[in-house]
Amino acid sequence: MRVEQGGAAAVLERVPSHLQTTTPEKIFWSHFSPNLAPAAWVIGTLVVFLGLSGWAGFWVLVIGNLLGSLPVALCAVMGPRTGLPQMEASRFALGTAGKRLPSLINWVNCVGWDAVNNVPSALAFMLLLKMAGLNTPFWLALGVLATAQLLASLGGHDLVQVIEKYLGWILLTAFAIVGCMAVSHAGVAPSSTSVATLSFASVTIALGAVSSFNMGWAAYASDYTRYVPENTSSKTVFLLTFLGTFLSSFIMELFGLLTGAAIKDPSPGAVIDALNQWSGPFAPVALAAVAFSSIAINAANDNTASYALISAGVRVNRMLSVAVTAGTAYILAVMGEGSFVSLYENYLLLALYWIAPWCGIVMADWYCRPAHARSMRMLTREGWTSSASLFVLVTVLTIALFSSTPIFVGPVAQLLDGADLGYLVGFVLGGLGQILILRQRHGVEILPEKEHFHA
């Protein structure tokens, strides 16, 4: 296992072929383990509170996770071919200047989710230490977890991959035990939802929450596939990424769906209290799983954030970037132990509207080039491109018109009684707009590229 170099070149330049030695099976774990976290359980609980219990909620989880996991898998395919982190690879469409804005937004999101993920984990860690007779203040419990996350992410790609693999097995076992006990004690509430009572707004909000939880990982995808040999089957990369992302989030959200009726509210604190109560003699296992799940998710968060900050144009050492990210997230989490967390989560949900148009543009640019222009796909475009302008325009319009969050509801969403179509609209507009740009640039009909999924 090697420590990834600290210079900006580790992000800005493709991985040399002789270093692309990561085994494909690690792709699965790098996309599986981070979703074994209380946040996914909370989303399943949220679906119940939106009025979608029983089979209605089940199909929302299936469809939402499909919609969210597909972009992640399609982006992951780019890693072995480009040898670049995901945000840096977007320079092929957005340009060297154009990719800085989404890279900076992604860094902010990484910091924010790092902080939000750490709050419930630190609370669980405090309860775990209290069982051992240690009354630990929040800032100290959080500091222990944040230090572990920092050390994991300082090593870079290889160390994060190893942690995801072995910690993934531990978390899967722990949450399987805790989940089964929770379902047994909570009881599965009968479905109170019928087709006649389904609200279009509640369905779209639930689908948006479920799909965005996974879609956010699209901006990380090739970060953990770029060290895989370039000749690795694209079908293999796609399938391992898709299964890792879909299965972990679906399992955790399904536990939330099955127990949601017995949890007082869809918040991390309420979920932790319920798990602690239902787990009985396995309560330490439940609390440890919640606490240490933050290492799996935030090791990836901090590492990806370090890549994103460099791609945003901040030319700092990668390890310093990791330290800045982890330190900023720690401060935010300490500040957010109280009501700040819910406010910050709402902000993050609003900020995630940028992911959909970014995915649409980057994926259309990669997969929809005409045959004669495929060799230009990995040609770096200098400056700010028309695709970068498209990204800004679609993101602003999506938020202003279609978003539906607790802090802002766009006029179109208001007309639809709060229905959230922002993610779908942003993705479609971004993708179609990029296809039009490609057609204008190359003057030919654009067809989906099949060559990418080579055997």
TrEMBL record:
<feature type="transmembrane region" description="Helical">
    <location>
        <begin position="237"/>
        <end position="262"/>
    </location>
</feature>
<feature type="transmembrane region" description="Helical">
    <location>
        <begin position="320"/>
        <end position="341"/>
    </location>
</feature>
<feature type="transmembrane region" description="Helical">
    <location>
        <begin position="39"/>
        <end position="62"/>
    </location>
</feature>
<dbReference type="GO" id="GO:0022857">
    <property type="term" value="F:transmembrane transporter activity"/>
</dbReference>
<feature type="transmembrane region" description="Helical">
    <location>
        <begin position="388"/>
        <end position="409"/>
    </location>
</feature>
<comment type="similarity">
    <text>Belongs to the purine-cytosine permease (2.A.39) family.</text>
</comment>
<feature type="transmembrane region" description="Helical">
    <location>
        <begin position="347"/>
        <end position="367"/>
    </location>
</feature>
<keyword id="KW-0472">Membrane</keyword>
<feature type="transmembrane region" description="Helical">
    <location>
        <begin position="166"/>
        <end position="188"/>
    </location>
</feature>
<feature type="transmembrane region" description="Helical">
    <location>
        <begin position="194"/>
        <end position="217"/>
    </location>
</feature>
<dbReference type="InterPro" id="IPR026030">
    <property type="entry name" value="Pur-cyt_permease_Fcy2/21/22"/>
</dbReference>
<dbReference type="GO" id="GO:0005886">
    <property type="term" value="C:plasma membrane"/>
</dbReference>
<keyword id="KW-1133">Transmembrane helix</keyword>
<protein>
    <submittedName>
        <fullName>Cytosine permease</fullName>
    </submittedName>
</protein>
<dbReference type="Pfam" id="PF02133">
    <property type="entry name" value="Transp_cyt_pur"/>
</dbReference>
<dbReference type="InterPro" id="IPR001248">
    <property type="entry name" value="Pur-cyt_permease"/>
</dbReference>
<keyword id="KW-0812">Transmembrane</keyword>
<keyword id="KW-0813">Transport</keyword>
<feature type="transmembrane region" description="Helical">
    <location>
        <begin position="421"/>
        <end position="438"/>
    </location>
</feature>
<feature type="transmembrane region" description="Helical">
    <location>
        <begin position="282"/>
        <end position="300"/>
    </location>
</feature>
